[in-house]
Design goal:
- The chain is of the alpha/beta class.
- The chain folds into 2 domains: 8-326, Rossmann fold; 354-564, DhaL domain (Serine Threonine Protein Phosphatase 5, Tetratricopeptide repeat).
- The protein is 46% helix and 14% strand.
- The chain has helices at residues 11-22, 82-92, 106-121, 151-164, 169-181, 230-242, 264-279, 311-317, 354-386, 393-413, 418-433, 435-451, 461-477, 487-502, 507-524, 539-542, 548-559, 561-564, and strands at residues 27-30, 33-36, 46-53, 70-76, 98-103, 126-131, 183-191, 209-212, 223-226, 251-258, 284-285, 289-291, 300-308, 321-322, 327-328.
- The strands form 3 sheets. Strands 7, 8, 9, 10, 11, 12 and 13 form a 7-stranded mixed sheet that branches. The chain has a 6-stranded mixed sheet with strand order 1-2-4-3-5-6, sandwiched between helices. Strands 14-15 form a two-stranded antiparallel sheet.
- The mean pLDDT is 91.
- One of its GO terms (molecular function) is glycerone kinase activity.
């Protein structure tokens, strides 16, 4: 259990500040993460990695020469926000472009890709490499759906070595993608992690059982199997990773990774069995790693990763690297060069009409009510999310809504109209919540703001704003009805609202009706099997349980009905 913290909500920020103070020769704190404290060569490609906290030594521990130039760090088991990625990548850019490397999780993909678009618009060339090495999360012919696990380290190490050697942007992407394509991992879990402030672990295993195919955000295995001895466990792990061995592949690096509570001595016992099992299959092991490489707080478990190497990848894997948590080859002294902290520019407050300012006050009140409702629903939403996820949905939704309410209040006090108030709220929600829910709510609120105005509200403003927000969420999240997501409640809500208003029902009753439709649709998600996001690999567990995103949407629209009326 995680025992040392102040406010659990501040755990990630407190941890990152302490980390930067512990390693000032390696890293410098910037908003959203850390950057290298040493001078990179002018015109060097910047490799930026990242994800949620709770995984140390990933991701901040990999920042240094020959590795990553920066790491974006979100809250515990939650992807960083788009704004954080933009800020960190901007600080890391040395003029030759940025490679973003991160694990294949819905929230990370949404936020890093949105950041990539923003950075590209600002004139910084950016490419993404999405790590997808977890063979348990999707079959081989659906490689693009696989999660990222310990393969993150191999991809970042090889990409970082290539950038240090002077490869251009396309060259770094080329070797990183080839590394990812040749990497597979499989993990097993013995007991789940306990995030700060949580009363117990996210999952427990039955006596004498283990979960096979764990996720690094505290997800249990995709199957439950008998607990094995070291030799049998080595056979299970090596057998499954070698099943995807490329034809004629011979040389490989191998990682045996502890998830946080499995001790080094246990890993060495298992490694003693893994090596002969691989050698018996003709594998030549190149510079392996055994230890805690990417963890999940205090999860008891481990993973085995194999990356098949050619001559170029082998040379890059063996190249020197120096970071707080990963060091290879001779240390090279480099001057400390503090980087300028990216300036955070507040949105301007444009002119607005009296009518729009009046609606903005209602919007602020609606956010306050929504934040209170989500805080009350937080335990229920967290319990729903823990069925096939990491149990943080209630926490991040309550946190995002509270930040949005505060930001909307500031905007109203400054004389903002409706659209600007919504934009302030959207930025705050997505930045404070992080993850996929933060990204989707931010996208939806921004789309609604574009329909509304800081002058007098246009005709049919509410239904047009709802439809625009729905379109943004479905496009941005690539979700459709039946995928078991927020869309399963959002679409019926919007269609009901549009139908009632077209029949000339007043807005207040129409909103109440639509809220009831959303609540029933959220209840009906219990019969669905998830096809997207973190819950997809654990679809069987999700059956019979409502989708937390759909339920939280229903909570929000029901709570704010009084303000809409």
């Amino acid at each position: 259990m995680t025992k040392i913290f102040n406010d659990p909500a501040d755990f990630a920020g407190d941890m990152l500040s302490g980390f930067a103070r512990a390693f000032p020769g390696f890293v410098q704190r910037v908003p959203g993460g850390v950057v290298r404290a040493t001078q990179a060569a002018p015109g060097k490609v910047a490799v930026v990695t990242g994800g949620g906290s709770g995984h140390y030594p990933a991701f901040a521990g990999w920042v240094g020469t020959g590795l990553a130039d920066a790491a974006v760090v979100g809250d515990v088991f939650s992807s960083p926000s788009t704004q954080q990625v933009v800020a960190v990548a901007t600080a890391a850019d040395a003029g030759a472009g940025v490679v973003l490397s991160y694990g294949n999780y819905a929230g990370d993909v949404l936020n890093f890709e949105a950041a990539r678009a923003q950075l590209t618009e600002s004139g910084i060339p950016v490419r993404s490499v999405v790590v997808s090495d977890d063979l348990a999360s999707a079959p081989r012919d659906e490689r693009s759906l696989r999660r990222g696990t310990a393969g993150d380290l191999v991809v970042v190490k090889i990409a970082g070595a290539a950038a240090e050697a002077g490869y251009d942007l396309e060259g770094v992407v080329r070797v990183a993608e080839r590394t990812n394509a040749g990497t597979v991992s499989l993990g097993v879990a013995f007991e789940g992690p306990t995030p700060p402030g949580s009363p117990g672990p996210l999952f427990t295993m039955n006596e004498g059982r283990m979960g096979v195919g764990l996720g690094i955000h505290g997800e249990p295995g995709v199957s439950e199997e008998p607990l094995l001895g070291a030799r049998e466990l080595a056979g299970l792990l090596t057998g499954r990773v070698l099943a995807e061995r490329p034809e004629s592949a011979r040389r490989a690096t191998v990682l045996l990774n502890g998830m946080g509570a499995t001790k080094y001595e246990e890993l060495f016992v298992l490694w003693n069995e893994v090596v002969p099992a691989l050698e018996a299959e003709g594998v030549e092991i190149v510079e392996p790693e055994v230890g805690e490489l990417i963890t999940s707080l205090d999860m008891a478990g481990l993973s085995l990763t194999i990356t098949w190497l050619d001559d170029e990848l082998e040379a890059l894997w063996g190249a020197p690297a120096q970071s707080p948590a990963y060091r290879k080859g001779p240390a090279e002294a480099a001057p400390l060069t503090p980087r300028p902290v990216p300036e955070i520019v507040e949105r301007a407050i444009p002119e607005s009409s009296e009518a729009s300012r009046h609606v903005a006050k209602l919007v602020h009140a609606a956010f306050e009510t929504a934040a209170n409702a989500l805080a009350e629903a937080e335990p229920e939403l967290g319990e729903l999310d823990s069925v096939a996820g990491n149990g943080d949905h209630g926490r991040v939704m309550a946190r995002g809504a509270r930040a949005a309410a505060t930001a909307a209040g500031r905007a109203v006090e400054a004389g903002a109209g409706t659209a600007t108030t919504l934009l302030f709220a959207a930025d705050a929600w997505s930045d404070r919540a992080g993850g996929s829910s933060g990204a989707l709510w931010g996208a939806g609120l921004r789309a609604a703001a574009r329909v509304l105005a800081d002058t007098d509200p246009p005709p049919n403003a509410v239904q047009a704003a709802c439809r625009s927000a729905l379109d943004a969420v479905t496009t941005y999240g690539n979700a459709r009805v039946g995928d078991k997501t927020v869309v399963d409640a959002f679409l019926p809500f919007t269609e009901s609202l549009e139908a009632d208003l077209a029949a000339e029902l007043p807005l207040g009753p129409a909103w109440v009706n639509a809220s009831a439709v959303a609540a029933r649709a959220a209840e009906a998600t219990a019969s669905l099997s998830p096809r997207l996001g973190r819950a997809r690999p654990l679809a069987a567990r999700s059956l019979g349980h409502r989708d937390p995103g759909a339920v939280s949407f229903a909570v929000v629209v029901t709570a704010i009905a009084e303000h809409v009326a």
